[in-house]
Amino acid sequence: MLNHTADLGVLSPTHSITARADKVRREVSPRLDGNRRAELGQFLTPEPVAADMAAMFGELPADVRLLDAGAGVGSLTAAFVTEALARPVTPRSITVTAFEVDPGFADLLGQTLDDCRAACEAAGVRFASRVIEDDYVLTSAEPVLSVIEGFNCAILNPPYAKISSASRWRLALRSQGIETVNLYSAFVALALNQLEPGGELVAITPRSFCNGPYYRPFRQHLLDNSSIERLYVFESRKKAFRDDAVLQENVIFQLRKGARQAERVRLETDSGEARQVPFEEVVRPGDKHCFFRLTISPEDAALAERVQAMPCSLVDLGLKVSTGRIVDFRAREFLRKDPGDGTAPLLYPAHLRDGGVRWPIPDFKKSNAIAVTPRVEKELVPPGRYLLAKRFSSKEEKRRLVVSVYDAEVPAAFDNKLNFYHRDGAGLPEEIALGLAAFLNSTAVDDYFRQFSGHTQVNATDLRNLPYPSLEDLERLGRHAPVGQEAIDAAVATIL
Asked: How far is CA 143 from CA 98, 139, 271, 424, in A?
């Protein structure tokens, strides 16, 4: 429970509502219990971000019915009311339904709504509000939905937390026809369902939904049920929530329920770039994965066009990429610090260094080897040359794609934090492996990858979805085997 007793000063109508809500946010955030914040997965919205989100709404209905799910201290509602009252034509009425599961936040949210009421009354706008101190996902799955449907506006900064497959939240979502893996995408999908046709939704979320297999149903849900009107990308991980330790890359998006997808979408960034881009530049026609590609600048769009012109898929090349088969905490009894009789090399991401592999690593905190037993043997790859790619890059690394060639002289094992390229489970020809390494390690391909990947994870599906050069071009790159970033980039530029 939070106890906020600071003097916030005297309310002035309209613009000071958001200032007061933001003062509450700034005073509350440092005092939040870290475990509780992790449990709720919520980060309170700074005033500038809230104001930008409110300004995204188009022409407002005469009678606004606003949903703010995961409302926190009410920053988004305050920004919305401030924006609505500042417009040349103000609404006739504003009715707010705000969900907040944390009792301390709910108390402060009530104060913000009182401020909104006072400002609306001063402007001659009727105002009503309701705070529902309950779980938004679970409440949405209850049989009686009349209190949480029929909205014509929704503004959201939803919580960020994974949902396990067996949780009551996952079951509740399935009852609503929603399949997703994180609370933020669950909140957005539910809010979209609860909007009436033509209603608008503006939300700030991580960019992680833009790619990856687990978010595909969510992406499809957005595309099937709304028109994507506007996307605002934060190029810096820290800019959206600079007061908090948030390392997600964020995006604000504006949706219109039930509308036919607009041919062009407004794409903006926090660096000032703004473009009207064809929607097919965001979601490519025929892309079964429905990846969202965010080409921030004309240069990004030109790069995307060049990479997408690559002639081959992995299937065309006769290659595959898989995730490493060893989950170390499930194989503890077989792990060995150092290689020895009856063991096979075990490679982790830390073994990948500067385009090559350093193995074994002395005094390695993980394991360098795994005991070869009947249970482990089936998880080994045969001797051969493989291309290894990190599934996770550290926060400090500048690159998303970090790949190295590994020549396995004996059967070897790969940790599941690595992806590996192979040919039907066996190694690659030398020139193909070296050429593929040069292609993936190039700055151009890394920049292209970032257009749809807003987080540090590199899924095997992402790698399968990349366009690739022809075998002939890969072999030519491999024969020259460029060393150093400048040489790699120059060599790859000849085929892009």
From this structure: 19, 9, 45, 50
- For 300-308, the CB contacts below 8 A with 24+ separation are 300/447, 300/451, 301/277, 303/444, 303/447, 303/448, 304/448, 304/451, 306/444, 306/496, 307/444, 307/445, 307/448, 307/466, 307/467, 307/496, 308/284, 308/467
Q: Which of 479, 478, 455 is nearest to 162 (CA)?
A: 455
Nearest to 275 by CA among 304, 241, 306: 304
Provide the pLDDT for residue 141: 83
Pairwise CA distance, residues 107 & 399, whole Å: 44
* In 47-105, beta strands by DSSP E: 63-69, 93-99
- pLDDT digit string, tens, across residues 391-432: 986 554 678 899 999 999 999 999 999 999 999 999 999 999
**Closest Cα to residue 211, out of 312, 150, 287?**
287
Q: What is the pTM of this model?
A: 0.81
Q: What is the CATH number of the domain that holds 248?
A: 3.40.50.150
368 and 275 fall within a common domain? no
